[in-house]
Design goal:
This protein has about 100 residues and is an alpha+beta fold. It is about 40% helix and about 15% strand.
Length: about 100
């Protein structure tokens, strides 16, 4: 499967910012997805996406199904979305009318 994703990586927009979030309960898995599988994402996005950031979350809320509500993950998403809004607003203000 990884080879298929790597082969199709040219379809990934070069403007895409990627955040890969790994949850670890045992420091090698979130009890569903092995950390090595999450880390393999770098081979898909390197030299294609604008940026690739891998983050590992540990603790009670690091199980796979808990990641969408994990405080660290929520903060990351908020920062990215709010950052996008700021960049869009700045760009719009700079454009001539």
């Amino acid at each position: 499967m990884l080879a298929d994703f790597i082969a199709g990586k040219k379809n990934i927009p070069s403007t895409l910012h990627v955040y890969s979030v790994a949850g670890t309960i045992t420091y090698d898995s979130d009890e569903l997805v092995p950390d090595a599988s999450v880390s393999a994402g770098k081979y898909i996005y390197q030299n294609q996406a604008k940026s690739y950031t891998e983050i590992t979350v540990t603790g009670e809320d690091a199980q796979h199904s808990d990641l969408p509500t994990n405080d660290e993950v929520v903060d990351l998403v908020k920062q990215h979305i709010e950052g996008q809004g700021v960049r869009k607003k700045q760009k719009t203000q700079l454009e001539p009318q």
